[in-house]
UniProtKB/TrEMBL annotation:
Keywords: Signal. Residues 1-19 form the signal peptide. InterPro entries: Secre_tail. The keyword DNA damage does not apply. It comes from Moheibacter lacus. This is T9SS type A sorting domain-containing protein. It comes from the Bacteria.
Length: 364
């Protein structure tokens, strides 16, 4: 019986340690303040001073001052974390307050190899973790950054992308069988969007401003099909987020006279993402402004373009190869398809180099 009891005791130790370890290592921790020699130094809440800590299997990394940070190895026993092989890198802090905060943080991380820690869940999903070393110096982390969550007027909503504007060129959201809408979902500190592949991440809004920063992102590996040219739009749209991950973005929320709402995100170069709170069923470029017939087609395909919305058409095979291309200058077009092989093609209607609409055409 004693042997069995002793065995249970030793078996329970790894389980307890594992639970303690997971409580700490399953979170990304954001550093809000440090206490060094009884002086509390708060994070100045600048993008460059944004400091967060995450764990690998037996290593940790804490980023601060953009490309700077602290990394090393760790082990956890009950409520004590021991650090080893600790190295620091200065990074790119410029503001005096950021430099002061960084230096105090680094000094604490380097002066002692072990900390006692507590993990304190709060209301609303907030979790606090306070680390204290033998010298009595402290690090205060939470699982949320020092930023605010999304403002109430734009949070918990589905925003439909209308177009992307890059270098003053407007790229409209695709409208075809594969992609007919691109939605941005906002939920507190988190966002999700994507054309074909999912793009998810977290952001923080700077207090008392209309500015925010993208803090972290992850993108799925899914690509769009080769037919409609959606990959090009995905690269453009997703690239906007990746390009601006370390930059400050501005947002503008508007309640329009027709009761609709709009959200415009602008980067430092003036490039924009323009969203609305409803998916537009019609627009100046919708199918209601032109007709395509007959479909299926044997010889001639007619396109009625009374508003002269389109200036160019392309016909592609299912491998994405252009088999016919024509400049449009009249309200009525007739395409000669007699010499095309039977099969399925994609008709792209364009204006100012942008795809307004893609239609599947069946050649008999």
């Amino acid at each position: 019986m004693k042997t069995f009891t002793l065995l249970l005791f030793f078996l329970s130790i790894p389980l307890f340690i594992s639970a303690q370890t997971e409580e700490l290592t399953d979170e990304v921790w954001y550093l809000h303040w440090v206490k060094l020699n009884d002086q509390t130094i708060e994070n100045p809440n600048l993008l460059e001073s944004n400091s967060y800590l995450w764990f690998g299997v037996d290593s940790f990394f804490s980023e601060t001052c953009l490309s700077g940070g602290v990394h090393g190895n760790f082990s956890i026993l009950e409520n004590e974390i021991s650090l080893s092989n600790v190295n620091t890198y200065p990074g790119d802090c410029e503001a005096d307050a950021s430099i002061l905060f960084r230096e105090a943080y680094y000094e604490i991380m380097l002066q002692d190899s072990s900390f006692s820690f507590t993990i304190n869940p709060q209301e609303g999903g907030l979790i606090e973790s306070i680390w204290v070393n033998e010298a009595g110096n402290e690090l205060y982390f939470t699982n949320r950054p020092f930023y605010n969550s999304a403002p109430t007027e734009i949070d918990q909503m589905s925003w439909f992308l209308q177009y992307v504007k890059i270098d003053d060129v407007i790229h409209y959201t695709p409208n075809n069988e594969e992609v007919n809408s691109v939605v941005l979902q906002l939920n507190g500190y988190h966002f999700s969007t994507g054309v074909c592949a999912p793009l998810d991440g977290s952001f923080g809004f700077l207090p008392d401003t209309n500015k925010f920063n993208i803090i972290e992102m992850a993108e799925g590996m899914l690509e769009c099909g080769p037919v409609y040219g959606n990959n090009q739009f995905q690269n453009l749209y997703h690239g906007y987020f990746w390009t601006n991950q370390l930059e400050e973005l501005e947002y503008e929320y508007t309640e329009n006279s027709d009761q609709s709402k709009s959200l415009v995100i602008t980067d430092s170069q003036g490039n924009q993402l323009v969203y609305g709170d409803v998916q537009l069923n019609t627009s100046e470029f919708s199918l209601n402004s032109f007709e395509i017939y007959p479909n299926p087609v044997k010889d001639f395909l007619s396109i009625e373009n009374p508003n002269l919305n389109i200036d160019k058409i392309q016909l592609l095979d299912l491998q994405g190869k252009i088999v016919l291309e024509q400049i449009i200058s009249s309200a009525s077009i007739k395409l000669d398809l007699k010499n095309l092989s039977k099969g399925i093609y994609i008709l792209q209607l364009k204006s100012n180099h942008q795809i307004l609409q893609s239609e599947k055409i069946i050649k008999k």
